[in-house]
Amino acid sequence: MNSLNEQFSQRLSVLEKEYKNYLEEPMDLNITRGIPSVNQLALSEPMLGLLYKPEDFLSQGNIDIRNYGELTGISEAKELFSTILGATSKETLIGGNSSLSLMYLVLTSKLFTSPSSWNAEKSVKFLCPSPGYDRHFSMTEKLGIEMIPIKMDENGPDMDEVERLVSKDAAIKGIWCVPTYSNPTGIIYSDEVVDRLAKMKTRASDFTIMWDNAYAVHHLTNDTRVAKNILAACKKAGYPERPWMFCSTSKITFPGAGVSAIAASEKNIKLLSNELSYQTIGYDKLNQMRHVKFLNNSNQIAKHMEKHASILKPKFDLIQKKLNERFKESNLLTWTNPKGGYFVHLTTLDGCATEIVKSLDKIGVKVTKAGATYPNGNNPKDNSIRLAPTSVELADLEKAMDIIGLCIEMISLKKVILVRN
Ligand SMILES: Cc1ncc(COP(=O)(O)O)c(C=O)c1O
User: What contacts 43, CB < 8 A, 6 or more positions away?
Assistant: First the structure.
């Protein structure tokens, strides 16, 4: 055995001993869930008491928001959400408590009820920049749409590959994008990527960009750069009907009790309103008004998000500190250092991620299943782990990071030794 292998083996036996101790006394730590912490939820509690005077129940001074109506949302909410999404009020529709259900609505209407329904075609495919958001992929899978993984780098999806594929295959009907603080890598799409998505020639005349801006205002630092506006870019390129932009207050106020919104061309919004009219007479306008009164305008949203950041930043900083301490000088792991959003993404040595996640699970530390952020849960390189640190307390996160570091180092060293022998 050469001396480097000896060093690795010695280090491995130290790590294995440490791991055995944890096996005897397992933890109970869960960092799988990209949800706000209790302290973050408390920031929005004052919103619940904002409607109490008779005039609070009126939109534009005369529409009773306690009653049916206003299918596309109250105008005050359209104004507020159009500023988050970068559209006009007429290009904005306010949904219920979930942007995911708006995404589902767009896809099902294109598949089943639009005049040129996709379902009538032999096959329907979607580009899935990966790693990406697992629920986008499970929705796509459920709807029977074939998923084509696309590599991601620090600027967004691999646009050479995207352009090559969409130019030759009419069955490719769209692409999923999380343009600002992408889930899970935290990257922001570059201007060039946005322009290329807007301008590219596609064989499918109804190519659709699902632009999920779930983290549009979720900054952790003073650097508040966001992705360029895809609707404006598509209009300029002559494809105004291509993008659908989504957002919600799930991670601004309350997940499950927030408000979602969609922005698209006026023509698309009219089509979607018609579609919606068969499902509901109108969403919860009281909640829309609560959000309008609480969040008010972009300055107030920014101030509110600074409060979230002051709770979240120490957690993200702790992850960087812990990973730097253990892996800065090694080539066993690389990781992201996002300036916003909800996740840190780890790239392990190839073939190690599943084993690392399993070894963590055995000692009571739950992280998102390896591969979950790839179409069909399948990452051929098996090298991707998503950390979701927002909901855990700092002290628990510190314990979890020690154990995560231990398992990554242990499994990776085993792999290195195996390969070298
Ligand atoms: C990229 C992305 N989109 C959408 C959602 C869910 O949004 P909503 O609660 O509005 O359905 C999440 C939640 O984690 C997300 O990460």
Answer: 304, 307, 308
